[in-house]
Give the backbone structure.
Amino acid sequence: MSALCIDASIAIKWVVEETGTQEALALRKTAKLLAPDLLISECANILWKKVQRKELHKNEALLAARLLQGAEIELVPTRSLLEATTQLAIELAHPAYDCVYLALAMERGSCFVTADDRLLRKIAGSRRKQLRDTVTPLVPVPR
């Protein structure tokens, strides 16, 4: 089974019904999943925002957090990714907290799957083929 690096845009779909939820759930069956430990705080922040926007009730968010906490995913410490993440953030002119996922995927030689359209656009515009080849959108973009 191959390893895939995922971000919070994927993990949150496991517990909150959104566009791409079925595709995100399918990843859990087809690959070993890994993510930087940043995933924890990003998912908590997304759940908090959904409560603030009245998209979820407090109890739903807490249940979602509990389910994510038990998900089978290898969480990797981010300290060793600091330099690579910084370089990617500068190169892509994109926030570092998203680039840490890409840095991990590149370090591990795995594919990075995301539903973050803004990040996907930045990577698609990169001159580096290695970056473009590392990333796969959760739902393929129609041509």
In short: The radius of gyration is 15 Å.
